[in-house]
């Protein structure tokens, strides 16, 4: 973009934003089954937007300058603490930041050489990201390939004198199942190791599903041995993006997440989060969403979500060739195909206006498609199932994504650091995946099929180059 020589009127800018968003996935209506969370209640979203804008220019850097930040955060964190077994919290920008701070606190508390954390292969990659940034080794353990839950004995076997944190999920994102938290937390406590529950998805969902009649096991800070928990409010709290809460059972552990520096001649530096300056807009949006819905609103959304999930699971089971993975205990559902390429199915569904999230095979878990059921899904679940059935038929007729002979071996053998982005873009275009500007949205079945055939390290290298090419410059 060239900076304009003179300022442009707001109307022109908004018109251009509308043009830029023309090919975006819709954020309302439930046809996008990942990334966005919709209550279906316009008044709630409007209240959050107005509160977000009201707090947009307030800076969370110095709470003494803006006491509104302190009061709002106390109320938001207090609501999460009341629902999830108590604790002392921090409001963060999202699950990744909450997880990063939990890993930092555990590392700093232990102060061990070559620290490691033990987690299931189904734990969110945010833990790997935190470990990468913080110099912590990851010890990943397998899950049971029928239940997709981690086995406590495997966790116990992986722990050693350098383990600073054990991780379990409520639920794990890939298949929506809850790890055996009570057993794992007890094992960790017996060894004096903190146990973090990743409830970024389930923290503000599972209690309402329980009230709606679902059998939800204990998972929060009330469980002995659980020392910290992350809960995203921009997921099933339905707040605008940028809203998560990290809870610690012990306030001393929370202080380990903080950062302070007095080794310079400038203003006082004390940060509760990774960021320093940050807008209070997300905090205002989260506060307003919680207030606008209230307990009654969340219970109603929980009932609708539970019913929609039941109908979806039953409907998928009735579609020939499709199989739900595991027994989902939340509102995350993953399914695979016996005689249909799920990556082709996803492309067919997108051509019909529905986005289903592809998940690559890993650690014995087959490639599958993931659906996040939200409060608005119930009104469109039959339409979704119809599209999935039609897309499965179309994918079966098309057959699996065809990869040119030798392509996977070629990609795996390329030194990606030795070629520039333009060469990588040409290579992609030669197999029908044109990422160059103006080429439009490519079908992703071939991309996903190539990635699925590569080992994880090669997948990661290719993904980095895809991102670099897409953004360019």
TrEMBL record:
Keywords: Lyase, Pyridoxal phosphate. InterPro entries: GrpII_AminoAcid_Decarb, PyrdxlP-dep_de-COase, PyrdxlP-dep_Trfase, PyrdxlP-dep_Trfase_major, PyrdxlP-dep_Trfase_small. It comes from the Bacteria. Pfam families: Pyridoxal_deC. Its cofactor is pyridoxal 5'-phosphate. Belongs to the group II decarboxylase family. Sphingosine-1-phosphate lyase subfamily. This is Pyridoxal phosphate-dependent decarboxylase family protein. The lineage of its organism: Bacteria, Bacillati, Actinomycetota, Actinomycetes, Streptosporangiales.
